[in-house]
Amino acid sequence: MLSNFTSNISKQIALFVSELQQTALDKSFSFDTNESDYLWKLKWKNSQYLEESFEIELWSENSLFTLRGEHTIDKVMKQVNETYFLYENQSSEELLSKMEEILQSFKNAVLEINNLK
Question: How far apart are CA 79 and CA 47, in angstroms?
Fold first, then answer.
């Protein structure tokens, strides 16, 4: 069940990144995924040439999962993080049923951060 989630979210984010690259021509986006570690990361540089990313991370706590969507800016000598969404104590079935909601939250956050909304 969880493998369906990880596979689907990877495919959907890759499609979104492809759309971004066609519409936001002034930015270069890159997408890294590590499905076995439950990590998806979209990266770009902001107008001050600082590295930014939006990351979805999933981890297990016993038989339940937590999923977090977080925006990160790597500044000189420090890192700034802001959580955009958090799903705690979810079964794999619950996560799968919320797939569209999670993807829409991810897309909205990335578009908002990059002033593309």
Answer: 17
